[in-house]
């Protein structure tokens, strides 16, 4: 089996030739400023339940995040902001011809804090995905098909809407190369671009001799925003209890340090917020949906430093960190610490697909200064000793924390199992309520339904937040894969249409993500056939057994096979990783038709199982459970290896009336009855009254006609 | 979908920097002189029915070919040959320190003529796969696990046996780099290495400053062989009737020339024997098992030249060629013609994975001379005109004939269908005979059985040859995937053991390849379970429906899924391409767990469907049919594309007593009965008497217990 990982872990330790090592590394990665949606990548992160998005893909990708709702800029204020921004272009120390404002924060987060929503502020466009580019006389905003209508409404006439992916629409690079006079200076905030993305941008605009200018000191949009800019989040950080985390910080650091040593590294810089949270057994509330806090972490062989707004850190958390030998430093001091790492000759492990360009560039510049000063010292002293081998180096590899975090330990799995049952209880109560309201002919909108679901979830112990914005899609809205109901425009849920509900919760002990599709009246035979085939795909993946060391994409076809038989398919991956009381979308594993992700599925990993089918302007179907990869006790072990399979985390009934039983094989029929009997057994102790009755009605064994 | 083809067709037209373009092209290809069996490659050619071998993989691959049986060299004669060969090392114009003798002919053929079996002659080792390397004081032979015992017996004490793939055994490059003093000269016959392989070798030995020396003039082994060397084959070439070929030569050339024009090429050199045969609607008898003739072909925009021993060409064939505007030239004049292509400034399309190093190097050297002379002319005449754009160029791409040949037209498919029914009739007669003999307690060896099968096939109209050496494996021998029974050592076929029979025929209208596994007594329940799971995999692939533009590897898991459920698997691919009255193994498509082959399956392609299971020292199971990719008339066409599936070519009963019916789903059970009813319907008209009765007994509907 040909594993990409051998490429991904090859150290490229060239302290000088930056453009050179980038060129060697980049062919593996997504050309983010080009229209190449189908390019496979190691990290494929799913922005909403089923998925297609790719980390760092700022210009065209889907990055759901909470949006600024009540801030529709009038045309005047938009022009005013642009004018103010352009004035800064010619300030001393700036001197640029264009400025790019992406959606990202400094940590490549899926969900970001309001103070970092600079693209929304400057453009007035509140969609989660978009890139703004402002030149001295033009302003353009790129977004994808989900947001064309919204952007048309929200952008003032000063803005050109770039419908990314549409025929003839240029990429940001192509547009810049077209509108700027050759030799232009394009400014960015280097914190908001991954190092990889910045390099790609740099090379793209270099074709027209434009220069990419890193403006470290101040984000220009923040200067315009000024007083009215929301403060950075400062909610308190909490310790993630060892009974949920399973492994203490000292042990995690020990493992990490051993990996560092194996790789010849003396330090690693970690910027992904979920990686910092996982490694330190900490949780935060800085962004919606993900229990993380803004921070960087540097782990060295003999010490570790957390860069964080210390006002968030209580004495208890302080003690917890001290015990693990972790020093606290201000969030903003990360760059100066990166510089001293270089000055001390550290060999620094950096994942340039997630680390921002400010950090990587600062380290590399400091390395260059180190070697220059060494060179001049040697010249002046005619020193023959070779100080090079002791010098600083960047070691470019995929973060080892990503994989360590993906493979769950027993305590994490226990928490996941437990919160999934409480989540199931909330859903059962919700479905009962729904059916009652529908029976009473109460008019319910998609948004009201989502709010009611949140109410039921909130009543469960340990509930913290939704794990993403609920997708509540009635009828044709269900066919919009990334649908988000808005109060003023959303549809009614009734007994005439299919209803797709994709939602999840963040609990103190785990994270859930579940989709069910139901009909409150009589589904058509077409809807039943499609639903049944989606279910057959769901069952085929659920029951798969496969040899260890196999990338997830090999299983993707199992989930599509039944749909393919009648010429149907779905345009998203089948499974994404899920964090344990962390991000609802995490890598590095995945189950997708994108063959580029060669990460083998491993025992303890969690993946979603969510095949679907979407009929434009009619209905959408998706059935999603979360699964844990487990070892299967097969009677044979051909090749002397382990064989793996899945164990379900999600226990919520699948609506029987949607199933055309005549299409099911005996084995599929048995699967369904077996699943429902498990649902009853596990969830019935958690509900009572009408909910318990509903659960019984919806889990009792079906009889084959 | 990420298609490798975009890489494969990227023109690399650098007339000078040879080492440079090779380095760019090579990462796609197999490092053949290294132990990297698992490396994926565009062309994966299956040497025996199920398969693992890779074109050009001289040192460790399986290239079954007819072998020199009665020529066991004594130790004395082997030493004598080595002495004679070494004497040539110091001849004027040679001057080498080592000579590599691979198994190949000049066309990368799977089956080769006896006069080209130089490695067998020099070493005495008759196995199909092996590479000999002779230095001034050492001689070593690399072969793989299948041949260790045989090589031990056949090699004299002058030879070191290199057990390729075993721990600690060096590759040929490693060994050369180890035993030669730095700066050595390693000679090869450049006709016997693909250009790609030679470049890899060159780079590998350059690490120790060794030089790769191309000895064009005469193969050194041939000089030693001398008088006793068999003459090159000169059997007459015949025209492949248009009713079988379907498309005339003029039309094929028209399409090819349009592809050349699209690629900016003015000529193409074709060396794969099946490509030449297919393009010219010719067939030959120069090698066993493949109806091809030794020849090269150069197609230019306005002319075409066939390089062939003209004594093979009858007046009828001559007329056929003349009609298509094809000129005849002596086989040996290929290099001088390649030189004149360069001199004329041709842009030559070359597939460096199949074209030999002699041709590619000759072209490139001629290009260099062209530009040097241009440069000196410009200097002397102070000529400012730029002659460069008009100059010769090599355009490095996968051969377009390979794909064109793989997609069969209606006439080719009709011939394939027809010959498969006659082949089935022969097999039915054979199985009846087998059962009778076993019942009579006649002792039959594996070899006798294979010979009898050939007898039945030979009686069918249009039969020409076996399409590969029959694999006739009784009991434990069935578990040796590449087993070849030898008269003096083979086992008996009886009613105590499983019997695996993988065989095929070349007919005037098509090519067959079929495997059945049977038991003449009572199979164990273990054997039945394994057989049934292999059958379930076979059925799953047979019934698959999938979107167009999908590489075959996506379907591979379907064929393994049932085995995986109990922890079993098989170590070979599931399907290979098959030529129409041509090579039994052809590319570019395949169905395999090697994810490197991104060639999409296309309507009209033929693939084998041959899952298996092999229990070491016990038994082997394989069930193989050939399938044609066809468009399926699905009720939907999601994405506006076609959905594809398979149509069977092979119609021979699957032994019911081997099946554990309780494991089959209702759909699988129906598949089996439906298949057998088709077998009866199609094959019963071709057999009579006891064969017809046997066919009825073995195809009548089974009843689910």
From TrEMBL, chains A, B:
Signal peptide: none annotated. InterPro entries: Creatin/AminoP/Spt16_N (IPR029149), Creatinase/aminopeptidase-like (IPR036005), Creatinase_N (IPR000587), Pept_M24 (IPR000994), Pept_M24B (IPR033740), Peptidase_M24_C (IPR032416), X-Pro_aminopeptidase_P (IPR050422). Residues 643-702 form the Peptidase M24 C-terminal domain. One of its GO terms (molecular function) is metalloaminopeptidase activity. Keywords: Aminopeptidase, Hydrolase, Manganese, Metal-binding, Protease. The keyword Metal-binding applies. The keyword Hydrolase applies. Its cofactor is Mn(2+). One of its GO terms (cellular component) is cytoplasm. This is Xaa-Pro aminopeptidase P. PANTHER family: XAA-PRO AMINOPEPTIDASE 1 (PTHR43763:SF6). Residues 84-208 form the Creatinase N-terminal domain. Residues 415-631 form the Peptidase M24 domain. Belongs to the peptidase M24B family.
């Amino acid at each position: 089996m040909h594993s990409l990982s051998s490429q991904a872990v090859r150290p490229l330790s060239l302290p000088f030739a930056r453009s050179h090592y980038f060129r060697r590394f980049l062919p593996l990665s997504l050309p983010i400023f080009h229209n190449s949606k189908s390019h496979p990548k190691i990290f494929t992160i799913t922005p909403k339940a089923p998925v297609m998005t790719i980390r760092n893909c700022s210009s065209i990708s889907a990055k759901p995040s909470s949006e600024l709702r009540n801030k529709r800029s009038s045309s005047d204020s938009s022009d005013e902001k642009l004018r103010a921004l352009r004035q800064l272009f010619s300030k001393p120390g700036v001197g640029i011809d264009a400025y790019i404002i992406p959606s990202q924060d400094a940590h490549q987060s899926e969900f970001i804090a309001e103070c970092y929503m600079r693209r929304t502020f400057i453009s007035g466009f509140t969609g989660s995905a978009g890139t703004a580019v402002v030149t001295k006389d033009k302003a353009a905003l790129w977004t994808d098909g989900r947001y064309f209508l919204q952007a048309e409404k929200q952008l003032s006439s000063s803005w050109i809407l770039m419908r990314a992916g549409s025929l003839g629409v240029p990429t940001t690079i192509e547009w810049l190369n077209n509108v700027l006079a050759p030799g232009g200076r394009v400014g960015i905030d280097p914190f908001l671009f991954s190092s990889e993305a910045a390099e790609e941008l740099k090379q793209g605009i270099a074709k027209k001799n434009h220069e990419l200018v890193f403006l470290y000191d101040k984000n220009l949009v923040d200067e315009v925003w000024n007083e009215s800019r929301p403060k950075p989040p400062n909610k308190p950080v909490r310790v993630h209890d060892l009974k949920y985390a399973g492994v203490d910080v000292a042990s995690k650091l020990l493992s990490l340090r051993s990996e560092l040593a194996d790789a010849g590294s003396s330090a690693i810089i970690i910027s992904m917020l979920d990686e910092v949270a996982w490694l330190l057994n900490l949780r935060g509330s800085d962004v919606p949906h993900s229990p993380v806090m803004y921070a960087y972490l540097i782990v060295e062989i003999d010490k570790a430093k957390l860069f964080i707004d210390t006002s968030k850190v209580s004495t208890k958390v302080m003690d917890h960190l001290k015990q693990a030998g972790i020093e606290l430093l201000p969030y903003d001091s990360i760059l100066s610490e990166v510089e001293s790492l270089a000055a001390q000759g550290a060999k620094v492990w950096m994942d340039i697909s997630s680390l921002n360009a400010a950090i990587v560039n600062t380290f590399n510049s400091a390395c260059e200064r180190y070697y220059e000063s060494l060179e001049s010292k040697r010249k002046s002293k005619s020193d023959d000793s070779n100080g090079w081998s002791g010098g600083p180096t960047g070691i470019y590899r995929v973060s080892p924390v990503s994989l360590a975090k993906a493979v769950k330990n027993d305590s994490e799995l226990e928490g996941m199992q437990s919160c999934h049952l409480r989540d199931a209880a909330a859903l059962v109560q919700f479905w009962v309520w729904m059916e009652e309201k529908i029976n009473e002919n109460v008019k319910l909108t998609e948004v009201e339904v989502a709010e009611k679901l949140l109410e039921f979830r909130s009543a469960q112990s340990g509930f913290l937040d939704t794990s993403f914005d609920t997708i509540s899609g009635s009828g044709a809205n269900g066919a919009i894969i990334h649908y988000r109901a808005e109060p003023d425009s959303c549809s009614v849920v009734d007994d005439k249409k299919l209803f797709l509900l994709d939602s999840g919760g963040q609990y103190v002990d785990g994270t859930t993500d579940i989709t069910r599709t139901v009909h409150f009246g009589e589904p058509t035979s077409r809807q039943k056939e499609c639903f049944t085939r989606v279910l057959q795909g769901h069952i085929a993946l659920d029951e798969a057994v496969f040899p260890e060391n196999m990338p997830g994409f090999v299983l993707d076809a199992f989930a599509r096979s039944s749909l393919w038989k009648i010429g149907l398919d779905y345009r998203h991956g089948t499974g994404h990783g899920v964090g344990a009381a962390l991000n609802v979308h995490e890598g590095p594993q995945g189950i997708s038709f994108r063959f580029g992700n060669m990460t083998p599925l491993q025992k303890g990993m969690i993946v979603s199982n969510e095949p679907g089918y979407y009929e434009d302007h009619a209905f959408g179907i998706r059935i999603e459970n979360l699964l844990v990869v487990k070892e299967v006790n097969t009677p044979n072990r051909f090749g002397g290896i382990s064989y793996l399979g899945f164990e379900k985390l999600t226990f919520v009934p699948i609506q029987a009336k949607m199933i055309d039983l005549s299409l099911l094989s005996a084995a599929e029929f048995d699967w369904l009855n077996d699943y429902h009997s498990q649902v009853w057994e596990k969830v019935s102790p958690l509900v009572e009254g009408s909910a318990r009755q509903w659960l019984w009605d919806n889990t009792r064994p079906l009889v084959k006609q």
